[in-house]
């Protein structure tokens, strides 16, 4: 026997209408709609980008105009003082001479008598295209051998009598390379050199010229030139005798080095090598090393060691001379 609930359930199911089946959608039409929507979105994005670029351009132009107006209205700090009044530009640095004069003296009396005086003066002037320099040096020394009390004093003997003058002019082709001419005259009676006059022309190269923050400097220059010299000889000591004159000529190599150990201590070295190719083979080498210790802004103590070598000196003379001196130098 069928129960009442089962009959009611069957009746309700029979009375419920069937669900409607949705109509099929055309896939091609949907794809076209999506493509159209994407194209429209791309067009709107491109238009927005164009408007943004135009706005950026207008902002940039406005900033430029504003900066120009501010620069016109604001005072120039480089040409105005704290009170706003215009300050004249600094005058160009004048081309002045820098000069140094050094003097050394040794004086001994008593059992022996010795006096030695040496001096050195240098001057330099730099401009944009030219460098002028001058250098003069000289020394004189006289000595008397010791004698016993009651005996006649031995005669004084000249142990040093020389002088030199050098003039140089450099024309700068670049800050590092220059062409130069040089003239030099010197005499040394002890070495039987009555007068030696020389001239040369060459090229100088500045490898570095550094000025450090602590005030010290470092400098290196090399020279390469053709040089000619005429040397007249005369023997002054021990007897006066005329000697034949000689000539020198050939390439000369030079070096000038300066290094600041500190701002008050500097080492300077000058080297010259001249192999003569005329009237026989002859070699001249000069090296001067100097240690400068600055005591004040203008006063310094200079210790100088000089070596001079001549492979063919005057007859009876030694090829090598050395000297060590201490002098006070004043810079102007």
Description:
It contains 2 helices and 13 strands; from the N terminus they run ααβββββββββββββ. A 12-stranded antiparallel barrel has the order 1-2-3-4-5-6-7-9-10-11-12-13. The protein is of the alpha+beta class and 332 residues long. It has 2 domains: 40-90; 97-331, Porin. The model is unreliable at 4-8, 21-25 and 74-81 (pLDDT under 50). It has helices at 4-15, 27-73, and strands at 97-108, 113-126, 130-144, 157-172, 177-188, 193-211, 217-235, 241-242, 246-260, 265-276, 282-294, 299-310, 320-331. This is Salt-induced outer membrane protein. InterPro entries: DUF481. It comes from Cystobacter fuscus. Residues 18-37 are annotated as: Disordered. Pfam families: DUF481.
Topology at a glance:
Layout: H1 4-15, H2 27-73, E1 97-108, E2 113-126, E3 130-144, E4 157-172, E5 177-188, E6 193-211, E7 217-235, E8 241-242, E9 246-260, E10 265-276, E11 282-294, E12 299-310, E13 320-331
Antiparallel strand pairs: 1-2, 1-13, 2-3, 3-4, 4-5, 5-6, 6-7, 7-8, 7-9, 9-10, 10-11, 11-12, 12-13
InterPro entries: DUF481 (IPR007433)
Region (Disordered): 18-37
Pfam family, one: DUF481
């Amino acid at each position: 026997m069928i129960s009442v609930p089962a009959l009611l359930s069957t009746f309700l199911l029979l009375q419920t209408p069937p669900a409607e089946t949705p109509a099929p959608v055309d896939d091609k039409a949907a794809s076209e709609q999506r493509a159209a929507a994407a194209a429209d979105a791309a067009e709107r994005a491109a238009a927005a980008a164009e408007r943004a670029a135009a706005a950026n351009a207008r902002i940039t132009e406005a900033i430029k105009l504003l900066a120009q107006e501010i620069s016109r209205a604001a005072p120039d700090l480089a040409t105005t003082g704290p009170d706003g009044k215009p300050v004249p530009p600094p005058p160009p640095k004048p081309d002045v001479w820098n000069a140094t004069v050094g003097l050394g003296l040794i004086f001994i009396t008593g059992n022996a008598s010795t006096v030695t005086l040496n001096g050195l003066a240098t001057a330099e002037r730099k401009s944009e295209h030219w460098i002028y320099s001058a250098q003069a040096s000289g020394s004189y020394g006289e000595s008397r051998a010791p004698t016993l009390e009651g005996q006649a004093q031995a005669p004084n003997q000249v142990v040093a009598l020389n002088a030199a003058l050098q003039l140089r002019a450099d024309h700068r082709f670049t800050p590092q390379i220059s062409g130069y001419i040089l003239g030099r005259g010197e005499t040394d009676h002890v070495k039987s050199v009555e007068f030696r006059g020389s001239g040369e022309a060459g090229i100088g190269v500045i490898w570095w010229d550094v000025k450090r923050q602590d005030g010290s400097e470092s400098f290196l220059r090399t020279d390469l030139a053709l040089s000619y010299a005429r040397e007249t000889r005369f023997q002054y000591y021990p007897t006066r005798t005329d000697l034949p004159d000689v000539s020198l000529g050939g390439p000369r190599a030079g070096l000038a080095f300066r290094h600041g150990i500190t701002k008050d201590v500097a080492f300077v070295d000058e080297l010259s090598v001249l192999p003569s190719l005329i009237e026989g083979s002859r070699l001249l080498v000069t090296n001067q090393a100097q240690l400068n210790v600055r005591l004040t802004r203008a006063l310094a103590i200079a210790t100088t060691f000089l070596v001079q070598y001549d492979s063919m000196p005057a007859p009876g003379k030694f090829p090598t001379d050395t000297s060590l001196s201490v002098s006070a130098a004043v810079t102007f």
